[in-house]
Design goal:
This protein is of the alpha/beta class.
Length: 320
């Protein structure tokens, strides 16, 4: 879907922001760039929609060089969410959400339907919020509107640059949960930049840890925690892999077995290690947990990811 091929960004003063980056982001994947200040994560994201021009190498979207796209068409077809959301103050929430669809000349009926569907997905009742102005919303509500505005035109790709870092912890957690819901519902290819390792572990399908403009390791949350490429990665994720495995108790994470959504789910015993659970969840979305031969509950990928994110205390540095 998106491929970085030996991509570099060098500035006139000699600063190398990104150095020979080779990364491939799959269709429908939630991909996170994370790293300390100055690591090149935000620059990498901005080169996708050409907000920052690349110096060397090439980025491909659907096999086509980004430089071969009309730049306005490219940006229209990529949703973009910033830390400072900058809603249009004189417009209603519905009008803010439908800015790009209106430029694309969607019908009024189609725009309204899309705006209302998205508001409902993030818990903003259209009957209450559609005609409000941004100043009538809390910071978390405004950011929620910013997220769904990026989704409104049904773009294939969504770029998110530290979208929740300015929010209080409660609003931030709510928006992360909203984003997980949208991720599962809409299956968009999402590239997300954060400095918060817990956030990355909670949201990502795969994570790229960057340092000094280079990709140090790309992998799933489990791979980064349990198989760090070097000491930098080990320290960046908090060095908690062994402790998390040792503290893991499957029974504490279960949902009732009646909540299973699969007719004939794979089973796993309560004595299974975290490693064994993750290996099976790599192939099955949900597992039926048994103890002494009896069904006692279910476990799914999301509950394990949430467990990992809560148990990793390591954090990155501030935004670059």
């Amino acid at each position: 879907m998106i491929r970085f091929e030996n991509v570099s960004k060098k500035y006139d003063d000699g600063t190398v922001a990104v150095d020979s980056l080779n990364v491939e982001i799959n269709r429908g994947e939630f991909f996170v760039f994370i790293g300390p200040s100055g690591s090149g994560k935000t620059t990498s994201l901005k080169m996708i929609n050409q907000l920052v021009p690349l110096s060397d190498g090439m980025i491909y979207i659907n096999g086509k060089q980004v430089l071969d796209y009309d730049i306005y068409e490219l940006r229209w077809n990529i949703g973009y969410v910033l830390q400072q959301i900058a809603l249009f103050p004189h417009m209603t929430i519905e009008q803010n959400i439908t800015v790009v669809p209106e430029m694309k000349k969607w019908s009024k009926e189609k725009m309204k339907k899309r705006a209302y569907e998205l508001m409902e997905m993030v818990g903003l009742d259209p009957a209450i919020y559609a005609n409000r102005k941004p100043h009538q919303l809390s910071g978390g509500e405004q950011q929620r509107v910013g997220v769904i505005r990026a989704l409104a035109a049904d773009s294939e790709i969504i770029l998110m640059d530290e979208p929740f870092s300015a929010l209080d912890p409660i609003s931030r957690e709510k928006l992360q949960d909203d984003l997980l819901h949208l991720k599962n519902q809409l299956k968009k290819t999402t590239v997300f930049v954060t400095h918060d390792m817990e956030e990355a572990l909670k949201l990502a399908d795969r994570i790229c840890i960057m340092k000094d403009g280079k990709a140090v390791q790309v992998g799933t949350p489990f791979e980064l925690i349990h198989h760090p490429a070097n000491e930098f990665v080990h320290q960046f994720v908090g060095g908690k892999g062994n402790r998390i495995e040792g503290d893991f108790q499957l029974e504490q994470l279960l949902s009732p077995s009646e909540e299973t959504t699969i007719e004939d789910p794979m089973t796993i015993d309560t004595s299974a290690s975290l490693n064994e659970v993750l290996e099976k969840l790599a192939e099955h979305e949900q597992l039926l947990v048994v103890k002494n031969g009896e069904r006692i509950g279910t476990i799914n990928r999301q509950r394990v990811i949430q467990y990992l994110s809560k148990n990793v205390q390591g954090r990155g540095q501030s935004n670059e």
